[in-house]
């Protein structure tokens, strides 16, 4: 934790923010840190489905962003399950935006806070529908105008709140209610949009992908982004048991396999350049990931030759990611996909059991 705290304050100094406040990690032995109560910006008792990856991701993000934040939240499952009138699961100032304008609302909140001399950090939250598709224009503007906002996209790869419609983030060949698998087609015809590359092309200080399967890695990325003054972006892979049709208890396992096979690479980009990746120690076959989910069940019909072709296609996409980002690990890197699954709370480089 000494490392974390020093690094955060160094970053804050570099980017013109004041040193860490009392809610942020102080220099203390990791045992003390683990004994401390966590800041719960998103309370338990909300109405997400059992095993909802989005709920888990948002909880980790809020724990690590700390209490001095305000949130603009686009319409979608996260907004709906946390705020059934007259209740709210949020312990921070939180504003519901329209589906398409979370980034515009966040830009205004940030400008107003700045005008008042306040240092409260603004967070903007959206699903993949609200980020990859309908809110993209507002997001691009927010990044280009260099607002001091951390935007987090909870990527469950479809419009879940309205009944599992395909988005531009839905993976190729996944079956959704608007790309149903059948005689006409094998699920979605098109490819998942490479949003992170588009975001990085705005040359913002920091953009990264993360996964609920690697909470220590996600926590580190949130803390790093929080220390930067300027626009930052995280896309968090968040399985949806309802829409992906997997058992609720398998959320983390499904998310882990997506990373381990290369279909959802964990990478970091600063000012448009790739600065870090999570190496995959032993890449898994893509079928290990697909077979857990009903949305890919049609790819296991051995009487259908299209199924084999599509499985091969998805494997080729994963191989392409592994090659493009140089994900293939070499040896016992402590922060690779195998090692990081076993780290204790406190960060990947903390003492390990
Ligand atoms: C302009 C507009 N179009 C459509 C809707 C209906 N709508 C509400 S939530 C939602 C799906 C949200 O999908 P996503 O952003 O991926 O979030 P998720 O529910 O999957 O977390 C839709 C289509 C809306 N509220 N506003
Ligand atoms: S439908 Fe999916 S994203 Fe929405 S609350 Fe349920 S599990 Fe979460
Ligand atoms: Mg979604």
Automatic annotation (TrEMBL):
From what organism does this protein derive?
Answer: Maritimibacter fusiformis
Q: Which residues form the Thiamine pyrophosphate enzyme TPP-binding domain?
A: 75-236
Is Electron transport included in the keywords of this UniProt record? no
Q: Where is the composition biased (Low complexity)?
A: 167-181
A Pfam family found in this protein is TPP_enzyme_C
InterPro entries reported in the protein's UniProt record: PorB-like, THDP-binding, TPP_enzyme_TPP-bd
Record flagged with keyword Oxidoreductase:
yes
In terms of SUPFAM superfamilies, this protein maps to: Thiamin diphosphate-binding fold (THDP-binding)
Q: Where is this region: Disordered?
A: 1-33, 165-186
* Gene Ontology biological-process entries: small molecule metabolic process
Keywords assigned = Oxidoreductase, Pyruvate
Mind telling me what this protein is named? Pyruvate ferredoxin oxidoreductase
**A GO molecular-function descriptor:** oxidoreductase activity
């Amino acid at each position: 934790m000494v490392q974390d705290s020093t690094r955060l304050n160094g970053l804050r100094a570099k980017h013109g923010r004041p040193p860490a406040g009392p809610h942020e990690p102080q220099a203390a032995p990791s045992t003390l840190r683990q004994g401390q109560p966590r800041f719960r910006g998103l309370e338990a008792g909300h109405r997400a489905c059992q095993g909802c990856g989005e709920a888990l991701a948002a909880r980790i993000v809020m724990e690590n962003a700390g209490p001095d934040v305000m949130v603009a939240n686009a319409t979608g499952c996260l907004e709906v399950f946390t705020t059934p009138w007259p209740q709210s699961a949020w312990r921070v100032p939180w504003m519901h935006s329209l589906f398409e304008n979370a980034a515009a609302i966040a830009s205004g909140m940030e400008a107003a806070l700045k005008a008042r001399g306040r240092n409260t950090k603004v967070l903007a939250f959206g699903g993949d529908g609200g980020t990859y598709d309908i809110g993209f224009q507002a997001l691009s503007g927010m990044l280009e105008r260099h607002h001091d906002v951390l935007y987090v996209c909870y990527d469950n790869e479809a419009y879940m709140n309205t009944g599992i419609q395909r988005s531009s983030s839905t993976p190729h060949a996944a079956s959704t209610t608007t790309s149903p698998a059948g005689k006409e087609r094998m699920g979605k015809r098109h490819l998942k949009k490479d949003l992170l590359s588009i975001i990085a092309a705005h040359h913002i200080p920091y953009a990264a992908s993360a996964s609920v399967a690697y909470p220590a890695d996600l926590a580190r990325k949130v803390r790093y982004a929080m220390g930067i003054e300027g626009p930052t972006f995280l896309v968090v892979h968040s399985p949806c048991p309802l829409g992906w049709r997997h058992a609720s208890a398998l959320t983390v396992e499904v998310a882990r396999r997506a990373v381990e096979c290369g279909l959802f690479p964990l990478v970091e980009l600063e000012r448009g350049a790739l600065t870090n990746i999570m190496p995959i120690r032993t890449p898994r076959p893509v079928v290990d990931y697909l077979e857990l989910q009903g949305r890919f069940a049609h790819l296991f019909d051995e009487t259908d030759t299209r199924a084999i072709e599509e499985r091969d296609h998805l494997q080729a996409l994963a191989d392409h990611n592994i090659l493009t980002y140089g994900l293939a690990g070499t040896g016992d890197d402590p922060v690779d996909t195998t090692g990081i699954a076993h780290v204790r709370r406190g960060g990947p480089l903390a003492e390990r059991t």
